[in-house]
């Protein structure tokens, strides 16, 4: 009679169920991306709100001067022109948008919607501020846009309020079905 011997040393599946470490890694694969993007966008929003120079119409480091500097080299100058009608208002909208996206992503609240917001912010920055980067990969906004797409598609399946709410809805539906 032969006896099987376990040769792997990986921990069991974190949620139980007898799955192996590869399943666990697959399930949690988007978590580092979610944490990175969430923390980065929270930091970016807070940085804008606390920077005394940023939220001004003009002056070194101001949102107004930044937009005027990139207007002619952007892919969509009309987008910059629209923001230039109220650069301070646009700066506040961007800062609060980044905060909302970051918090939603980090906590996993309406994650797909938050990720879509992050993708749209990154897309608008790519088409305006970093469009003239040469070569194109020097502008980080395109990389951020691509980083948001997996979260737009998959959401936050683990360690998120979305997952907790989904689990609660399933439990309620299972209780009603009986």
Written description of the protein model:
It contains 8 helices and no strands. The protein is mostly helical. α2 (31-50) runs antiparallel to α5 and α5 (87-107) packs antiparallel against α6 (111-128). The termini are far apart.
Annotation keywords:
elongated
Radius of gyration: 22 Å
Largest sheet entry: none
Calculate the mean pLDDT score and round it: 89
Number of strands: 0
Task: Please state roughly what percent of the residues sit in beta strands, choosing from under 5%, 5-15%, 15-25%, 25-35%, 35-45% or over 45%.
Answer: under 5%
Helix content: 55-70%
Total of helices:
8
- Report the end-to-end length measured between terminal Cα atoms: 46 Å
Identify low-pLDDT runs.
5-13
The arrangement of helices and strands along the chain is HHHHHHHH
Shape: elongated
Structural class: mainly alpha
Fold topology:
Layout: H1 21-27, H2 31-50, H3 63-70, H4 77-84, H5 87-107, H6 111-128, H7 140-154, H8 161-177
Helix pairs in contact: 2-5, 3-4, 5-6, 6-7
